[in-house]
Amino acid sequence: MRLTWPGRQWREGDPAPTSILPAKALTTVEIAGDPGAAHRLVHGDGLDAIGALEAEGLAGLVDLVYVDPPYASDRDYVAEARLDGPADGRARRTLAYEDRWSLERGGVGAYLDMLAPRLDALTRLLSPRGTIWVHLDWRAAYLVRALLDEILGRDAFLNEIVWRRAPNLGRQAASAQFGRTLDTIVVYGREQATLRPPTRLEPIEPGAIRWDDEGRPFTSAPRGDYSDASIAKLDAEGRIHRTKSGRVYIKYFLAKNAEGVLCRERRVDALWTDIAPLRHAAPSERTGYPTQKPRALLERIVACATEPGSWVVDAFAGSGTTGVAAHALGRRAILVDRSPVAIATARARLLRDDAPVRVEHTAGTRAPEAKGVKVQLEDDRVRLIQPAEPLAWAVGTEERGVFRAAWHAERVPGMKPVPAVLEARVPCGPNFCVRVFCDDGSVGSWGRARAGAPELAGGAST
Ligand SMILES: C[S@@+](CC[C@H](N)C(=O)[O-])C[C@H]1O[C@@H](n2cnc3c(N)ncnc32)[C@H](O)[C@@H]1O
Fold first, then answer.
1. By Cβ atoms counted within 10 A, which residue in 24, 50, 181, 322 is the most buried?
2. Whose CA is nearest to atom 7 of ligand 1?
């Protein structure tokens, strides 16, 4: 199976320029928390970052790749940092990333020439039990299946998961087609890949509830395609219900959900209607990064596809949802994004969750510089004067270009966002340095600069 498109470059004997260059190593710029356990946050293009990770020896070691790339939507996406709460008040808006593929820019063919080599490279990181999950919508899902068939082979296909990401309301419901309320996640796996779908509790109609002799509630269903041997096994487990006329039904014992309603436990299938859209998530989860996915979605994916300690890679990481899900479940994440707004957002989010983080960048990538950082020092007290409402800031030491955070603070989003604390009590020894992270992705520094360290020259003490 091979998809062709006008001007196709991928695997056409004319490799994209980045793929013929030897991979350059990633440069570490910050370590916050235990470096041995840190999640990696890489600022730069995915192809360069994956090449560097491969050169480091990560090929074949990653159990899960999840990516939520641009969908060829022909739009710009703006991040919105709400300083006073989600509904109204002051907001800082910054272009987070562009998803433009007009005909002048090469159309959908150019989109595929961007995506295909990145998916190709990501699959080389997969371990023998590894899976790759690509999150898309109606615009590109059908094309990406063909790409993955070509990269991994048709037999590597595992699932096409349909996630109901929005209710059928408003413009969608009023339009002249069925509401496009779904996202598609295509899943392919290496030869030993096995997913462990979770179960969920589904409420049972009261009329379908029965009680056995021991007072246990159950519901029953016809035997369906169960073999006689399976029925005998279920009978031995007390799971067979026989009607007076002798018909055989399978018993499903019931459990109460959090609201005390009797439910049947069912294995989750490929239709995911039980994970609410982000707008229904707690305001503290909503970072303001456009196209952010719900953490519950990523937790399900990470839990069913990996083991504690597994490496999880997301090369279109956005606000870092994959990273916080991986951290919560005891996995190690490598997040890559070329948008400085994404890196600043994901960094703040991971640190709010107490996740140790190593921030790196690919060759030639650097966050824009935030100028005018002002700091007040008094004994072991550090006060940030300017900017007065940062997304995040940190105090630590800087040596050979690597900032080690000893203390950090981040704004906490929510109905009433909590601004980052502006005062730290930390010793201000040699190489003392302050880093400030702004909503537009820029990073400012202030420090007891060593001569020739230009990034430390941005601020002034009072
Ligand atoms: C749909 S968003 C991801 C949102 C993310 N899943 C979340 O929950 O926040 C896509 C991301 O891909 C990034 N991106 C686009 N092209 C890229 C590239 N070539 N390399 C790395 N990141 C890229 C964009 O900056 C954007 O943050």
1. 322
2. 292
User: What is residue 436's three-state secondary structure?
Assistant: strand
- In angstroms, rounded to a whole number, what is the distance separating the alpha carbons of residues 220 and 264? 10
Q: Is the pLDDT of residue 135 over 90?
A: yes
Cut 0.90: pTM above it: yes
- The SS3 of residue 419 is coil
Reply yes or no on whether the pLDDT at 212 is more than 70.
Answer: yes
Domain locations in the chain as residue ranges: 17-195+271-361, 199-267, 374-454
Closest C-alpha residue for ligand 1 atom 13: 316
Would the CB of 134 count as within 6 Å of ligand 1? no
Q: Which atom number of ligand 1 is nearest to the Cα of residue 69?
A: 10
Best residue among 53, 302, 339, 343 to mutate for probing ligand 1, ranked by most atoms within 8 Å of CB: 339
16 band by pLDDT with thresholds 50, 70 and 90: low
Band (pLDDT 50/70/90 cuts) for residue 88 is confident
Tell me which long-range contacts 104-110 makes (C-beta under 8 A, separation of at least 24): 106/7, 107/6, 108/5, 108/72, 108/140, 108/143, 109/5, 109/6, 109/7, 109/8, 110/7
CATH code linked to domain 17-195+271-361: 3.40.50.150
